[in-house]
Amino acid sequence: MRIRAPRRGALRVGCVRFILDFFAPLNETPVTHATLLVDCQDRTGLVAALSDFVFRNDGNIVDLDQHSEPDTGRFFMRLVWDTARFRLDRAGIRAALGVMAQAYDLRWRLHFADERPRLAVFATKAPHCLYDLLLAHSLGELAGDIAVVVANHPDLGPVAAHFDVPFVHIPAGDKAASEARQRAVLAEHGVTVAVLARYMQILSPAFVADWEHRIINIHHSFLPAFVGAKPYHQARERGVKIIGATAHYVTADLDQGPIIEQAVARVSHRDGVEDLQRKGRELERQVLTRAVRLHLQHRVLVHGNRTVVFDG
Amino acid sequence: MRIRAPRRGALRVGCVRFILDFFAPLNETPVTHATLLVDCQDRTGLVAALSDFVFRNDGNIVDLDQHSEPDTGRFFMRLVWDTARFRLDRAGIRAALGVMAQAYDLRWRLHFADERPRLAVFATKAPHCLYDLLLAHSLGELAGDIAVVVANHPDLGPVAAHFDVPFVHIPAGDKAASEARQRAVLAEHGVTVAVLARYMQILSPAFVADWEHRIINIHHSFLPAFVGAKPYHQARERGVKIIGATAHYVTADLDQGPIIEQAVARVSHRDGVEDLQRKGRELERQVLTRAVRLHLQHRVLVHGNRTVVFDG
Amino acid sequence: MRIRAPRRGALRVGCVRFILDFFAPLNETPVTHATLLVDCQDRTGLVAALSDFVFRNDGNIVDLDQHSEPDTGRFFMRLVWDTARFRLDRAGIRAALGVMAQAYDLRWRLHFADERPRLAVFATKAPHCLYDLLLAHSLGELAGDIAVVVANHPDLGPVAAHFDVPFVHIPAGDKAASEARQRAVLAEHGVTVAVLARYMQILSPAFVADWEHRIINIHHSFLPAFVGAKPYHQARERGVKIIGATAHYVTADLDQGPIIEQAVARVSHRDGVEDLQRKGRELERQVLTRAVRLHLQHRVLVHGNRTVVFDG
Amino acid sequence: MRIRAPRRGALRVGCVRFILDFFAPLNETPVTHATLLVDCQDRTGLVAALSDFVFRNDGNIVDLDQHSEPDTGRFFMRLVWDTARFRLDRAGIRAALGVMAQAYDLRWRLHFADERPRLAVFATKAPHCLYDLLLAHSLGELAGDIAVVVANHPDLGPVAAHFDVPFVHIPAGDKAASEARQRAVLAEHGVTVAVLARYMQILSPAFVADWEHRIINIHHSFLPAFVGAKPYHQARERGVKIIGATAHYVTADLDQGPIIEQAVARVSHRDGVEDLQRKGRELERQVLTRAVRLHLQHRVLVHGNRTVVFDG
Predict the structure, then answer these.
(1) Dihedrals φ, ψ of A8, to 5°?
(2) Fewer CB within 10 Å, N side or C side of chain A?
């Protein structure tokens, strides 16, 4: 039980510090945050242990959201703290969390606010989702950077150029060659998250496996309704009164991955397929950009085929 | 072309009347309305012919909603007129419409505001949809009357009694016997519309066929997602971020009938199955009562497996 | 009663044509439409007279939406017909409608689908609404053309350039001079509709009067809540759980003009003013673009300080 | 610093327990919960101190939601723990929290799941909100009990009777006498929360002050739009495209209290005042019942004139 010794030691320090800091003013505009996502089987003391770890190292918790599922006994937590005066450096934090993770059998991810994720946006010809992401980025609405746009057609090059983002045209052609090229581009640009913005190609199972929970797709229906091709035609055919769009992580099973975000819009008999497509475009971009925002803020935890989204 | 003669004749009358009535004040609170629903292949002159028919017989159109589907070439119309000073009696109107229907190959239905449809509500044990319908009725929100509540369990008897509506308990038991009893009850109460308010029995194909487009069911999911049993469990399992409810006409194919109305609500990872069921109950009653209201206002036309809903 | 003679004459012709055309197939993809908007005190025969006018001149009505307000006795109608084989030319149609308008005391507007309205978008520095309009336009979603972008700052020039739309920078400075310049630009570009896309200047009463019901503004609140400056700050202060955006015609009274469209989004205590602004931007662009689309499709009638929106 | 001694002592115990319990299974269906709401100026160590307090007394945290407002530096927390094996009894918990509250200058409230709040519903003649609350209660959807219905008219007596809830008719008449009677009824029934379900009387400032943040009202508009009388008439007059309803705590300023929940519905020009009222009734009951549910689950904290709602 390795955690015992550091814990007890730290607590002594903590108690001393407690006296000193008790009336210390809150650091009101922290410039540096760490976000910890934790996921494990629930047991008593998890919140206390993790919040105490932050406290006794002089971190101030600014946001904590924790949930235990009664039916599965699963524990999920998102903890954000101000690291401005934290005693441990990043390696130290990781080491300490590693020890606790072993003790408690935690799955965890740690993110620092100044280590901004780098995105690749994959597109084909439809521009609306790409514009929305690039605009959100340029308005400072995303906690990450769009490093490159990859497309299997050249049409959207000028859009990327307008926003000063590199554009790489990789024609579909030979599957293996394109994938190798894609992987090279992602590596070259330091990409950690791929966003499929109405990208009309299917990624290989190997690629999907390597990028598990790091590829976000937009499907133009309210999943699980209307999987597969031409969902607006399907919706028109079925006569639904509401259509939707779904952002999800890509898995080997098409349109079956964990859902991050969904939105809907009312339609009527007056809406032909073209109207559904237009209304759908509005939904697609909203939903995809929101899902990307949530992912970049480290608000999404995947458990099985479901997500826990600690949204603001 | 039988329509020619009456049309021309009526127009002469119409022109005379035109002069006389030109500055006549609008009858502002008409107590008697007729609602005509029409559905046919589109051809020129339909609106003119029908509105002229109303006009030259001294009816005043108070609401007209017409739509032609570009892709199918199908024409749909809902026409409401004030019959306070109409020249033709009800039989005369039906006769005239019959002639026009033959000429134009129309499907049509005609309803008079004072001939209120009579409903049977079918229920089992869940009270929420039943309460909602009975309350809406007692508040004067429905253009029809709840004539009887039919249930395969006795539990909801006091609810019906509270609203002074007859309650008939028909245990599920022998299928043929219960159906015979149901048919007898509907006949006895002059019922023209059946509403399945979380009724947990399946109606026979013969019954469904006899009551085509006159049985309204509420399904507790956003169809076509989660057909069949336990949709909230399915929704929880799939991890959707939005749940829904769907009111539809019952057809021989379970959960496949023409959709009248749908609504949705956001859910999160914090919502267990019980929470989904609670949020769902709120949706189910809203959606079912709205669908019943639309049906009773003669706003719903069925074409194939889709509905045209001329909602206010 | 001038209308009588042409009416009777036309009807004779109409009856002949009636026989000939009766089984003529519907012209399924009409390329030319006329849209008539009518607004008057209700009297009997209006729909019949107007639809008959279309019919006897060989027009086919493809969409008709009519509503009479019971409380005010006001009649509103939107009538769209296919003019492919219409007997009258545009001047002829206008002349005939002029006669009917006098007889019935109608207010009316007539629009032909190939006479596309030309828009000026007024902006300052915020790009989101401008992008949305330009993107909608480039996707063919608007029934009109963005002729020019006018801004009191140069910042958005590259956005207009990216979409190949002329950009005119008119610094705020001298009020009279800028307004004169604005009027000249609008005239030069044949503009008929002005859209204020988060334009941070107030137009003069004279300008507003000259462009009555032809200037569309987006206000970043759910009007009439939070009129005036800094509505997101006001919303945060009041602790509302839902924020909104409102598109309206500009009148002399700030934020008081007839409302065309509104939308809302949920917010929570976690949303600071910046979050409200971000969520608000998403609403503002949606609502403004929808309002512009509705206006360009000639779906909006103004009566007093309210609009009738015949939306699809 | 009184908190130091118990803290250190408890921690020694905690460390021992830590070893013993480490792999103890989660108590999966805790029957007893405590909910702590805390509100104070933020300082470091708050979450650690409070979660550690729970941990070292053998409580298991099942839900924790914490938020610090960057702009005001205010800290809000809702902490739910399983008390099945808790070392302290209720008096002990309150004593310990009292000590911590002094040290940290906390505002706090503590609730035990088996101490169900008792509600009085105040009504006049409109039944819809009352039915909704009574039905929700009878379906087990509320974490509290409806102890009594108080009305200034006798009409709703049968509704209360149907749900087996005592009904007290207190005619409006003499203000002082009715208020005295109301206070007596609340005392007699052990009421801790009053819900105004379309209650058409104004409570006295003294009454409101005595029941601060314990009276929930439903206002039939989207506040702050349309304060005061006849909001649906106001909405119709202003021509809004969306209407709403707002549940809020009652304060001395009419319609100005802290907002708990809001919802909206689309309306169109076809909706007369009666339609707005009907759509509004659907909103009012939803919003009021949701607000009551949130309050009874101890999810609502008031700070100034705003609420923090930790909703599920």
Answers:
(1) -65, -45
(2) N
Using the 8-state DSSP alphabet, how is residue B310 labeled? -
Instruction: Supply D189's token pair.
Output: 């029934």
Q: Quick one: which of B143, B153, B146, B159 has its CA closest to B191?
A: B146
Residue among A39, A65, A145, A255 flagged as catalytic? A255
| Helix spans in chain C (H) | 4-21, 46-56, 90-104, 128-138, 157-162, 175-188, 205-210, 231-238, 273-296
Instruction: Find tokens 């579909």 and name the residue.
Output: A172
Strand partners for D82: D33, D60
Q: Tell whether C280 is within 8 A of chain A (Cβ).
A: no
pLDDT tens digits, chain C, 312 residues: what are they?
222 222 222 222 222 222 222 223 333 334 589 999 999 998 888 898 999 999 999 998 988 999 888 888 899 999 999 999 999 999 999 999 999 999 999 999 999 999 999 999 999 999 999 999 999 999 999 999 999 999 999 999 999 999 999 999 999 889 999 999 999 999 999 999 999 999 999 999 999 999 999 999 999 999 999 998 999 999 999 999 999 999 999 999 888 999 999 999 999 999 999 999 999 999 999 999 999 999 999 999 999 999 999 986
Answer for the pair D32, D60: CB distance below 8 angstroms, yes or no: no
Please list every residue in chain C whose beta carbon sits closer than 8 Å to the beta carbon of residue A65: none
Q: Tell me, rounded to whole angstroms, the distance of Cα C62 from its chain centroid.
A: 20
Residue B289 CB neighbour total at 10 angstroms: 25
- Contact between A52 and D52 using a beta-carbon 8 Å cutoff: yes
Q: Tell me the C-alpha distance between A5 and A2, whole Å.
A: 6
* DSSP E strand boundaries for A31-83: 33-41, 60-68, 74-82
Query: Does B71 participate in catalysis according to the annotation?
Result: no
- Report the neighbours of D using a cutoff of 3 or more CB pairs below 8 angstroms: A, B, C
Domains of chain B and CATH, by start: 33-112 (3.30.70.260), 118-309 (3.40.50.170)
- Complete DSSP assignment for B164-232: T--EEE--SSSHHHHHHHHHHHHHHTT--EEEESS--SPPPHHHHHHTTT-EEEEESS-TTTT-SS-HH
Question: Scanning every residue of chain C, which has its alpha carbon at the shortest distance from the alpha carbon of D271?
Answer: C69
Contact criterion met (CB < 8 Å) for C309 and D259: no
CA distances (Å), A195 to each of A119, A154, A208, A218, in order? Answer: 7, 18, 12, 8
Counted residue by residue, chain B has a size of 312
One-letter amino acid of B306: R
Cis before residue A127, ω within 30 degrees of 0?
Answer: no
Please answer yes or no on whether C51 and B56 come within 8 Å at the CB atom.
Answer: no
Tell me, yes or no, if A135 comes closer than 8 A to chain C by beta carbon: yes
Q: State yes or no: cis peptide before B224, omega within 30 of 0.
A: yes
Sequence-ordered alpha helix ranges (H) in chain B: 4-21, 46-56, 90-104, 128-138, 157-162, 175-188, 205-210, 231-238, 273-296
Minimal CA–CA distance to D34: which of D142, D114, D97? Answer: D114
* Interface pTM, i.e. ipTM: 0.88
Mutate to test the interface with B, among D130, D135, D268 (most CBs of B within 10 A): D135
CA distance A104 to D21: 12
Cα atoms in the Cβ-side hemisphere of radius 13 Å centred on B119: 25
The nearest CA of chain B is from the CA of D278 a distance in Å of 7
In this prediction the pTM is 0.90
User: DSSP code of C76?
Assistant: E
Q: Which residues of B touch C65 (CB under 8 A)?
A: 64-66
At C200, the amino acid letter reads M
Contact status, residue A185 vs residue A121, Cβ threshold 8 Å = no
Q: Could you tell me the CA-to-CA distances from B33 to A27, B90, B193, C94, D213 in Å, in that order?
A: 70, 12, 20, 34, 50
Burial of A130 (0-12, 13-18, 19+ CB in 10 A): buried
Among B146, B236, B257, residue whose Cα is nearest residue B197: B146
